Amino acid sequence: MLNLIKRIFLFDASLQENKFDFNLTDSKNGTENSATVKKEVKISKKIKDNKTYIESRFSVPKNNDVVIKELKIKGDTKAFVLFYDGMCDGDQINEGIIKPLLEIPLFEEKKHKFNKDVILNSLIVHNQVSEKDNFDDIIDDVNFGSCALFVDGINVAFSMDVKDWPHRSVEKAENEQSIYGPQEAFADMLRGNSAQVRKILKTESVICEKITVGKVSKTRGVIMYIDGVANKSLIDEVKRRIDGISTDYIFSVEEISMYIEENPFMITGHILATERPDRVARMLADGRVGVILNGSPRALILPTNAYELLHSASDAYLRFDFANMSRILRLVATGISVLLPGLFLAITLFHEEMLPTYLLYAISASRQNVPFPSLVELLLMDFSFEMIREAGLRMPNPIGSVLGIVGGLILGQAAVSAKIVSPIMIIVIAITGIGSFATADYSLSWSYRILKFLFVISGAMFGFLGIALGIFTYSMVIAGSKSFGVPFLSPGPSKSLVFGSLFVPPIWKTEKRHEFLKPIRRFKQPKISKKWRYED
Question: Which residues lie below 8 Å from residue 346, measured CB to CB, with a gap of 6+?
């Protein structure tokens, strides 16, 4: 018995576990990696050398989804194709690449020597083919879903775009829903997303400049703008910042936005991300620049300002009076979601004289048996509401919606019945939560949720003075920030602020593009756009 107790509670060196640990001698100090120090290797004329190098780079046969298909084309010339199984369309490879190489009776003499022009113009019937003279370029294409062809005696390889990745189809927007206007949202494929924008704009002036981010991941994307509208210095600045990103892996446009934003420690983000192609097309027509990345269902819009984050995608498709009504409701809801809890604490703790007498009696009576101070009571319920919100997002859709409703009702009723919180506090938290859901931009709602807690603390400590100081400080910080050289509060206190930023002007009054974007073409429609009213 004593030995059993010793084995349980005392350490025995002979029973020590073999725990795994990394071999630190294998790691390298510094930021350089193998992808940055490799020298460019040219493609050889000898097919055997090319195949050996490819097998080494792709770790064949350990990599079992890499396909190297050897061929013997006309005249007994050796060749092989290289592609990833599952990333390419097998029918295109068979019908457009392999079959023509094997079956077209182009030459009868075995001594005939192929050249790259014969391969390009006669033997490959695929519609998208290019030639590469070094291994890095051809391997990048293969990693992106292309098929590579190597032919003996030719010191170039041929890249054919036959990608057929598993991907989602075009669906409705989830976070930017709108009753009016197009219902299509971005998916995950780069060319599909850029094609959706081109489908709306329908002009050859739309430019898609290729970008590659991540030294190892080499994630592809495009910078989109309208030539002749967008300011050239803005385009150059966007490309400069993206080219200046030095990291191994980038997988989404949200990561790019965190690398290129000017004020990374600001509570409010300075870059707009949208999942709607129609919104991107509208922004490009105003002279902005869009960034689309492969594998990301959102696009970045550069630059943006504080007012556009409050706009909804549906504003552009409503009559201006309806849109202005909707926008006013959203502005009021946003203000309530940020300021209401702090103002409630400031009034009840410092400025009771502002309340009607009977309302003050009602609040005092409801809090008579509550054991916690007002600040603790509010924070307790607000954190509970935030936890319900997060749990609803993480749960499956049917369960998440039920959890949000039932959890809120049961928790609120039980808290009031147990005298943990007062009924008036439940009302304040509920109105605040509803106001936060009315915020148009999802990332902006996160910013305002953080600001809400700051105003709660300042209001509980200093009353209206703390709320006023918080608003003043936040306004000064926002006023001093910029988004790609554009002041975040542009266009500033002018007539265009009222009619073009806070409110929706009639569509026939939107003759000019925003001046703060410095577009090449200032006007997008004549002063008299409804010419049917002024016909001779």
Answer: 459, 460, 462, 463, 464, 466, 467
Signed CA dihedral, 492, 493, 494, 498: sign only: positive
b/e burial code for range 311-344 (CB count within 10 A of at least 16 → b): bbbbbbebebeebbebbeebeebbebbbbbbbbb
Residue 279 near residue 441 (C-beta atoms within 8 A): no
Q: Pull the structure tokens for residue 329.
A: 């409701």
Size of the chain in residues: 536
pTM for this model (two decimals): 0.78
Residue 291 identity: V
One digit per residue, pLDDT tens: the chain, 536 residues? 666 666 655 555 555 544 444 344 444 444 444 344 456 788 988 899 999 999 988 888 888 888 898 888 766 788 899 998 888 888 888 888 888 777 765 545 544 556 677 676 666 766 678 888 889 889 888 888 889 999 888 888 988 888 877 667 777 777 777 778 788 888 888 888 888 898 888 888 889 999 999 988 889 999 999 998 999 999 999 999 999 999 999 999 999 999 998 888 888 888 999 999 999 999 999 899 999 998 889 999 998 888 888 888 888 888 888 888 988 898 999 999 999 999 999 998 888 888 888 888 888 887 777 888 888 888 888 888 888 787 777 776 666 666 666 666 677 777 777 778 888 888 888 889 888 888 888 888 888 889 999 999 999 999 999 999 999 999 898 888 888 888 888 775 555 555 667 788 888 888 888 888 888 888 888 888 888 877 65
Q: Which two tokens stand for residue 264?
A: 């990374």
Helix H or strand E segment including 55: helix 47-57
Instruction: Report angle CA 93, 94, 96 to the nearest 5 degrees.
Output: 65
Closest CA to 407 of 432, 422, 423, 385: 385
Structure tokens at 455: 């105003």
- Of the candidates 168, 172, 142, 166, the one whose C-alpha atom is nearest the C-alpha of residue 67 is 142
CA distances from 360 to 207, 356, 373, 405, 416 (A): 63, 6, 16, 30, 19
d(CA 233, CA 520) in angstroms, rounded, equals 11
Give the residue among 434, 448, 441 at the shortest CA–CA distance from 338. 448
Three-class secondary structure assignment of 410-479: HHHHHHHHCCCCCHHHHHHHHHHHHHHHCCCCHHHHHHHHHHHHHHHHHHHHHCHHHHHHHHHHHHHHHH
Q: C-alpha distances in angstroms, 470 versus 169, 458, 464, 520?
A: 46, 7, 10, 39
- Tokens representing 227? 């030539």
Residues with Cβ < 8 Å from 18, sequence gap 6 or more?
none
Distances (CA, A) of 361 to 348, 366, 382: 11, 9, 24
* Single-letter residue type at 186: F
Residues 6 or more apart from 478 whose CB is under 8 A from it? 266, 268, 306, 488, 489
Provide the token pair at 352: 């009771």
How many whole angstroms separate alpha carbon 22 and alpha carbon 306? Answer: 47
- Cβ contacts of 512 within 8 Å, gap of 6 or more: 522, 523, 524
